[in-house]
Design brief:
It contains ten helices and nine strands. By secondary structure, the chain is an alpha/beta fold. It has one domain: TIM Barrel. β1 (12-16), α1 (29-39) and β2 (43-46) form a beta-alpha-beta unit. α3 runs parallel beside α5 (129-138). It is globular and about 50 Å long. The two termini are 27 Å apart.
C-alpha cells in the first residue's frame, strides 16, 4: 500500500470493509489497520453489512495501537433489523456508527429489482415506533446515525426526527451513488441540519461528486473510500486517487484535507 500525500496525513476513512466477512475482502482487520497506519491514516471505521464491528475494532486497537480503529452496527436482517437491544449492546461496546439498513433495506432491494426488505416507515408512511426508539437511545450517546441505503424520502424523515431529538451526529451514506442518490436541492436543505454527506470513492462518479460538493459545500462533506474489495485499490491508494480527482476539479489541498481529515475527526470527536 502506498502512502498518503503529506497534506492528507492523519486521514480518517469512515467506510472501509475488511475480513472476516461473508464476501471476499482484500485485507483482514489487522492487516488493514497495519497497512493503513503505515500509509499515514489516523483512523478507520470498519463496516460490515452482516455483523457488528465495534468489538473487532477494540481488539484491533490492542494489536495496532498506532491507529484509531472504530466499528459499528448495520441494522440489517442479521442484526434483527430495527432491534433496540442490539443497538443498546453495540453502543455499550463502543459502536461509533449505527447504520440504518443497507443491503436489507427495502429501497436497496427495489433498486435491484427485488422485493421485501426493511423500511423505516409504517403503513401510514410515518417513522416506525422502533425506529424512533433507536433514535432516542442514540441521542444519549456519542454515536453517529447514518442513513444506510434508505431512500432519500426515508433518510430525510429520519434526519428531521433525529435532529428534533437533539442528535447532531448525522451522516448521509453515499448520496451520490445511483441507488441512494439525493437530489442536490435536498442535500442543501439537509445541510441546514448540520448533516454530513459521506461521498465515497467506490461510487465512482467523480464529476457528480465534485459538482455536489460545489453546490452543498466542503464544510458538510466527508470523503471516504468504501474500499476493501479484492479487485479494487487498497484504501490508501484509493483515497490518494480520490484526493487527486478532487484537486483536478479545482479543490485546494486545504479543502481536501478538511473533507478527509478535519470533518471526519470532528464527527468522531
Amino acid at each position: 500500500m502506498s502512502g498518503l500525500p503529506e497534506y492528507l496525513r492523519g486521514a480518517i476513512d469512515l467506510h472501509v470493509h475488511s475480513a472476516p466477512d461473508v464476501v471476499p475482502r482484500r485485507f483482514d482487520d489487522i492487516a488493514l489497520a497495519r497497512e493503513a497506519a503505515r500509509a499515514g491514516f489516523g483512523g478507520l471505521v470498519l463496516k460490515n453489512h452482516k455483523v457488528p464491528t465495534m468489538d473487532r475494532a477494540y481488539l484491533v486497537r490492542q494489536v495496532v495501537p498506532e491507529i484509531a480503529v472504530y466499528g459499528g452496527i448495520a441494522l440489517n436482517e442479521s442484526a434483527g433489523g430495527f432491534n433496540i437491544a442490539a443497538v443498546r449492546t453495540a453502543l455499550t461496546l463502543g459502536a461509533r456508527i449505527v447504520w440504518m439498513p443497507t443491503k436489507a433495506a427495502h429501497h436497496h432491494k427495489a433498486q435491484e429489482g427485488g422485493h421485501g426488505g426493511l423500511t423505516v416507515f409504517d403503513a401510514h408512511r410515518e417513522l416506525r415506533h422502533d425506529v424512533k426508539e433507536i433514535v432516542i437511545e442514540m441521542a444519549h450517546s456519542r454515536a453517529i446515525l447514518a442513513t444506510g441505503h434508505l431512500s432519500p424520502e426515508e433518510g430525510t424523515a429520519l434526519i428531521r426526527y433525529a435532529y428534533a431529538q437533539g442528535m447532531r451526529r448525522l451522516l448521509v451514506t453515499h448520496p451520490d451513488w445511483g441507488a441512494t442518490r439525493y437530489p442536490v436541492e435536498l442535500q442543501r436543505d439537509l445541510a441546514l441540519y448540520g448533516v454530513f454527506f459521506e461521498r465515497c470513492y467506490e461510487s465512482g462518479d467523480m464529476a457528480a461528486i465534485a459538482s455536489a460538493i460545489d453546490e452543498v459545500g466542503v464544510e458538510s462533506t466527508i470523503l471516504a473510500s468504501d474500499l476493501g474489495q479484492p479487485e479494487t485499490p487498497a484504501p490508501a491508494e484509493g483515497m490518494a486517487q480520490f484526493a487527486g480527482e478532487m484537486r483536478a476539479r479545482g479543490f485546494s489541498e486545504d479543502d481536501v484535507r478538511r473533507m478527509m481529515v478535519t470533518n471526519p475527526a470532528h464527527l468522531l470527536e
